[in-house]
């Protein structure tokens, strides 16, 4: 799975880094940063990585507005 993080998102990932598995942390650290963001390729092969992906996607997602139904 490929997730691209912009500058602001990378700062948010750093804030939750300790909640990610060692495997995901390594893949994040080894990912290449391009002009449009850090491209992180994750191998989703177990439940731990699935949970990491959920955490990482939450960083990219705006919080739900309580006024929206």
What would you say this structure looks like, in words?
48% of the residues lie in helices and 17% in strands. Strands 1-3-2 form a three-stranded antiparallel beta sheet. It has three helices and three strands; from the N terminus they run E-H-H-E-E-H. The protein has 69 residues and is α+β, with helices and mostly antiparallel strands. The chain has one domain.
Quick synopsis:
The protein has about 70 residues and is an alpha+beta fold. The protein is built from three helices and three strands.
Q: What is the total number of structural domains?
A: 1
Distance between the termini: 30 Å
Alpha-beta content class: alpha+beta
Overall geometric form? globular
State the major sheet.
3 strands, antiparallel
Helix content: 40-55%
Major sheet: order of its strands?
Answer: 1-3-2
The ordered H/E elements are EHHEEH
Strand tally is 3
| Contiguous uncertain segments of 5+ residues | none
- From the alpha-carbon coordinates, what is the Rg to the nearest angstrom? 13 Å
The pLDDT mean sits at 92
What is the number of helices?
3
Strand content: 15-25%
Describe the secondary structure blueprint for this structure.
Layout lengths: L1 E4 L1 H10 L5 H9 L1 E3 L2 E5 L5 H14 L9
Antiparallel strand pairs: 1-3, 2-3
Helix pairs in contact: 1-3
């Amino acid at each position: 799975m490929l997730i691209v993080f912009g500058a602001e998102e990378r700062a948010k990932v750093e804030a939750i880094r300790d909640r990610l598995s060692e495997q995901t942390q390594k893949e994040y650290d080894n990912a290449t940063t391009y002009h449009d963001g850090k491209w992180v390729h994750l191998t989703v092969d177990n439940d731990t990585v699935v949970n990491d992906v959920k955490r990482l996607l939450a960083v990219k997602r705006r919080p739900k507005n309580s006024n929206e139904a």
